[in-house]
Design goal:
Layout (H helix, E strand, L loop, with lengths): L6 H12 L11 H7 L18 E7 L4 E9 L3 E7 L2 E5 L4 E8 L4 H11 L4 E8 L5 E8 L5 H8 L4 E8 L1
Antiparallel strand pairs: 1-2, 2-3, 3-4, 5-7, 5-8, 6-7
Protein backbone atom coordinates (compact mmCIF):
# COMPACT_ATOMS: atom_id res chain seq x y z
CA UNK A 1 0.00 0.00 0.00
CA UNK A 2 1.11 3.55 -0.63
CA UNK A 3 0.65 6.36 1.87
CA UNK A 4 -1.29 9.11 0.10
CA UNK A 5 -4.04 11.38 1.46
CA UNK A 6 -6.94 10.37 -0.75
CA UNK A 7 -9.63 12.23 1.21
CA UNK A 8 -10.00 15.16 -1.24
CA UNK A 9 -10.38 12.79 -4.19
CA UNK A 10 -12.74 10.57 -2.20
CA UNK A 11 -14.95 13.57 -1.34
CA UNK A 12 -15.16 14.61 -5.00
CA UNK A 13 -16.04 11.07 -6.08
CA UNK A 14 -18.76 10.72 -3.43
CA UNK A 15 -20.13 14.13 -4.43
CA UNK A 16 -20.20 13.04 -8.07
CA UNK A 17 -22.01 9.80 -7.27
CA UNK A 18 -24.79 11.61 -5.37
CA UNK A 19 -25.10 14.99 -7.07
CA UNK A 20 -27.97 13.93 -9.35
CA UNK A 21 -30.01 12.83 -6.31
CA UNK A 22 -29.01 15.44 -3.73
CA UNK A 23 -28.93 19.10 -4.71
CA UNK A 24 -27.38 20.10 -1.39
CA UNK A 25 -24.32 17.85 -1.66
CA UNK A 26 -20.86 19.40 -1.82
CA UNK A 27 -17.31 18.32 -1.04
CA UNK A 28 -17.66 19.46 2.58
CA UNK A 29 -20.78 17.42 3.42
CA UNK A 30 -20.40 14.53 0.94
CA UNK A 31 -19.00 12.00 3.41
CA UNK A 32 -21.59 12.88 6.08
CA UNK A 33 -24.50 12.57 3.62
CA UNK A 34 -23.18 9.23 2.35
CA UNK A 35 -22.86 7.91 5.90
CA UNK A 36 -26.38 9.12 6.79
CA UNK A 37 -27.65 6.97 3.90
CA UNK A 38 -25.77 3.89 5.14
CA UNK A 39 -23.24 4.11 2.32
CA UNK A 40 -19.99 2.44 3.26
CA UNK A 41 -16.96 4.14 1.68
CA UNK A 42 -13.86 1.97 1.41
CA UNK A 43 -10.68 3.51 0.04
CA UNK A 44 -7.79 1.32 -1.03
CA UNK A 45 -4.53 2.47 -2.52
CA UNK A 46 -2.02 0.35 -4.32
CA UNK A 47 1.30 0.75 -6.05
CA UNK A 48 0.77 -2.22 -8.35
CA UNK A 49 1.72 -1.44 -11.89
CA UNK A 50 -0.82 -0.91 -14.64
CA UNK A 51 -0.80 0.60 -18.09
CA UNK A 52 -1.41 4.01 -16.50
CA UNK A 53 0.82 6.10 -14.27
CA UNK A 54 -2.19 7.26 -12.26
CA UNK A 55 -5.37 5.21 -12.27
CA UNK A 56 -8.38 5.74 -10.02
CA UNK A 57 -10.95 2.96 -9.86
CA UNK A 58 -14.35 3.52 -8.25
CA UNK A 59 -16.77 0.69 -7.54
CA UNK A 60 -20.32 1.50 -6.45
CA UNK A 61 -22.30 -1.40 -5.00
CA UNK A 62 -26.05 -1.34 -4.44
CA UNK A 63 -28.50 -4.13 -3.67
CA UNK A 64 -29.35 -4.31 -7.37
CA UNK A 65 -25.98 -3.98 -9.09
CA UNK A 66 -22.28 -3.20 -8.94
CA UNK A 67 -20.64 -0.71 -11.30
CA UNK A 68 -16.95 0.05 -11.70
CA UNK A 69 -15.33 3.01 -13.46
CA UNK A 70 -11.61 3.58 -13.89
CA UNK A 71 -10.18 6.93 -14.88
CA UNK A 72 -6.84 8.57 -15.41
CA UNK A 73 -5.19 11.83 -16.46
CA UNK A 74 -3.53 11.73 -19.85
CA UNK A 75 -1.07 14.47 -20.81
CA UNK A 76 -2.63 16.65 -23.49
CA UNK A 77 -6.05 14.97 -23.16
CA UNK A 78 -7.09 15.59 -19.54
CA UNK A 79 -9.37 13.31 -17.55
CA UNK A 80 -10.36 10.11 -19.32
CA UNK A 81 -12.60 7.20 -18.38
CA UNK A 82 -10.63 4.12 -19.45
CA UNK A 83 -12.79 1.28 -18.16
CA UNK A 84 -16.47 0.65 -17.43
CA UNK A 85 -16.92 -2.60 -15.53
CA UNK A 86 -14.78 -5.07 -17.49
CA UNK A 87 -14.87 -3.11 -20.77
CA UNK A 88 -11.88 -1.07 -21.97
CA UNK A 89 -12.93 2.37 -23.28
CA UNK A 90 -11.37 5.83 -23.64
CA UNK A 91 -13.54 8.94 -23.44
CA UNK A 92 -13.87 12.28 -21.67
CA UNK A 93 -16.63 12.29 -19.06
CA UNK A 94 -18.27 15.50 -20.23
CA UNK A 95 -21.30 16.67 -22.12
CA UNK A 96 -24.23 14.51 -23.19
CA UNK A 97 -23.40 10.81 -23.08
CA UNK A 98 -25.22 7.66 -24.11
CA UNK A 99 -24.08 4.37 -22.58
CA UNK A 100 -25.48 1.48 -24.58
CA UNK A 101 -24.99 -2.09 -23.38
CA UNK A 102 -25.37 -4.51 -26.25
CA UNK A 103 -24.39 -7.85 -27.72
CA UNK A 104 -21.38 -7.61 -30.01
CA UNK A 105 -23.02 -8.39 -33.36
CA UNK A 106 -22.57 -6.90 -36.85
CA UNK A 107 -24.83 -3.93 -37.61
CA UNK A 108 -25.39 -2.58 -34.08
CA UNK A 109 -23.18 0.48 -34.55
CA UNK A 110 -24.81 1.26 -37.90
CA UNK A 111 -28.34 0.93 -36.52
CA UNK A 112 -27.56 3.21 -33.58
CA UNK A 113 -25.97 5.83 -35.86
CA UNK A 114 -28.84 5.68 -38.34
CA UNK A 115 -31.49 5.97 -35.62
CA UNK A 116 -29.76 8.94 -33.98
CA UNK A 117 -29.05 10.66 -37.30
CA UNK A 118 -32.62 10.28 -38.53
CA UNK A 119 -33.73 12.03 -35.33
CA UNK A 120 -31.23 14.89 -35.79
CA UNK A 121 -28.98 13.74 -32.93
CA UNK A 122 -25.34 14.24 -33.93
CA UNK A 123 -22.63 11.89 -32.63
CA UNK A 124 -19.46 13.74 -31.59
CA UNK A 125 -17.46 10.72 -30.37
CA UNK A 126 -17.96 6.96 -30.10
CA UNK A 127 -16.13 4.25 -28.17
CA UNK A 128 -16.96 0.55 -28.18
CA UNK A 129 -15.50 -1.79 -25.58
CA UNK A 130 -15.77 -5.56 -25.48
CA UNK A 131 -13.97 -8.44 -23.83
CA UNK A 132 -14.54 -11.15 -26.44
CA UNK A 133 -15.77 -11.25 -30.03
CA UNK A 134 -19.52 -11.82 -30.10
CA UNK A 135 -19.94 -11.34 -26.34
CA UNK A 136 -21.37 -8.46 -24.39
CA UNK A 137 -20.11 -4.95 -25.17
CA UNK A 138 -20.62 -1.31 -24.31
CA UNK A 139 -20.93 1.65 -26.65
CA UNK A 140 -20.26 5.13 -25.28
CA UNK A 141 -21.43 8.05 -27.40
CA UNK A 142 -20.90 11.75 -26.85
CA UNK A 143 -23.76 13.57 -28.56
CA UNK A 144 -24.21 17.28 -29.30
CA UNK A 145 -27.57 17.56 -27.54
CA UNK A 146 -29.67 15.41 -25.24
CA UNK A 147 -31.52 12.65 -27.05
CA UNK A 148 -35.32 12.92 -26.73
CA UNK A 149 -37.04 10.26 -24.60
CA UNK A 150 -38.72 8.70 -27.64
CA UNK A 151 -35.32 8.22 -29.32
CA UNK A 152 -33.98 6.50 -26.19
CA UNK A 153 -37.08 4.29 -26.17
CA UNK A 154 -36.52 3.44 -29.86
CA UNK A 155 -32.91 2.48 -29.11
CA UNK A 156 -34.01 0.04 -26.40
CA UNK A 157 -36.25 -1.80 -28.89
CA UNK A 158 -33.37 -2.54 -31.28
CA UNK A 159 -32.28 -6.16 -31.54
CA UNK A 160 -29.14 -6.94 -29.51
CA UNK A 161 -29.38 -3.73 -27.40
CA UNK A 162 -29.66 -4.65 -23.72
CA UNK A 163 -29.74 -1.27 -21.96
CA UNK A 164 -29.54 2.45 -22.78
CA UNK A 165 -28.55 5.15 -20.27
CA UNK A 166 -28.43 8.86 -21.00
CA UNK A 167 -26.15 11.02 -18.83
CA UNK A 168 -25.27 14.69 -18.77
CA UNK A 169 -21.91 15.40 -17.15
Amino acid sequence: MIDVDTSPLTRYIVKGVFENQLESINIVNAMHLAKSRDVNIVVQTSNTSSSFTNLVTVTVKTKQEEKTLAGTLLAGYGERIVRIDQYPVDFAAEGNLLLISHNDKPGIIGRVGTLLGSNNVNIATMQVGRKVIGGSAIMVLTIDKSAPAEVLADLTTQAEIVNVRALTV
